[in-house]
Design brief:
The complex is a heterodimer of chains A (252) and B (93).
Chain A lengths: L1 E5 L3 E3 L1 H16 L6 E7 L3 E4 L5 H4 L2 H7 L2 E4 L7 E3 L4 E9 L7 H18 L4 E4 L3 E4 L2 E11 L2 E9 L4 H7 L4 H5 L6 H4 L3 H5 L5 H16 L1 E5 L4 H15 L1 H4 L3
Parallel strand pairs in A: 1-3, 1-12, 2-3, 4-5
Antiparallel strand pairs in A: 3-7, 4-6, 7-11, 8-9, 9-10, 10-11
Chain B lengths: L3 E6 L4 E9 L2 E9 L8 H9 L6 H15 L8 H12 L2
Antiparallel strand pairs in B: 1-2, 2-3
Classes of the chains: A alpha/beta (252), B alpha+beta (93).
Amino acid sequence: MKRWRILPLRIDDAFMSMAIDEALLKLNSEGRSPNTLRFWRWSPSAVSLGCFQSVEREVNLGVAKEYGVDVVRRITGGGAVFHDQDGELTYSVVCGQDDLPLDIIESYKLICGGLVHGFQKLGLQAEFRPVNDVQVGGKKISGSAQTRRWGSVLQHGTVLISPDIHKMFELLKVSHEKISDKFITSVFERVTTVERELGRKPSFEEIREAMIAGFEESLSVKLVKGKLTEEELKLAEELRPKYASEKWLRKK
Amino acid sequence: MTIKFAEFKAPKGVVKVELELLNERISRISFSGDFFMYPEEAIEKLEESLKGVRADEKDLRAVVKKFYTSTGTKTPMLEPEHWVKAILQAAGK
């Protein structure tokens, strides 16, 4: 069985977390980082934007400033997400392109399968919803985003444990098109959380353990405990200023 | 010159288009939204290839289709037709 690395839980600001993900992707493509799974949290809470989104159109920057919420642009596509420091566990998978199906949706399905199995271990019947979501009872409980660069793949995404949905509404500008969709009347009807589904809030560690076991099943790999290398940390620290810059944030 | 804008709801996600027209031709265009594109840099090629193109369904379709075939770009759940519709919506057609 193939062996991948599992990193310890980290808590970083949005800019460092994005930088670590890019560093792992880059070094994996150069054969300098092993295939890796990691779980992490955001401190402070943050809004992350998809790489094609306009910051002005998607985020209430004044509200973010007021709440002390960071705003960061990802290198992955997809939508804007509010990451609650107390209510979300985030994962990243970095591996070679050859370790995943070439088909984009199939590759999402395989990685999201780790979450589906993980949710099952927590007692929740979850299912993959293409392109990039995992649902429980028809409601989104996890969203992911993926990029492929230099021959490697980065996929990162959320596990919604108990995010502050009201804060999310205040921070994100919901598009008129989305509101007008007759199938979607409110975020409350299309998003759910681990806490809401289980009727209790498991610890971050309990959820992380369940997800690790889930990923081992889905990816058919043995996850071996490891640490970030000096080289990975150094590159991440070099990349962090890009993510913290106004230029990157206002790219679109 | 006025900046035109539209939000087009695709089967998955929203394509937002900002464009300027000069004599019925696109002089500037910028896409944003929550879509996925592999590779990401291709969005600039798509925008570039649309410059100078008439805001006409046939012309736009030809350019967008050529963009896909010549670059091999992939956009899950987003078809050439969706970009064309989004642009026409912004152009007010």
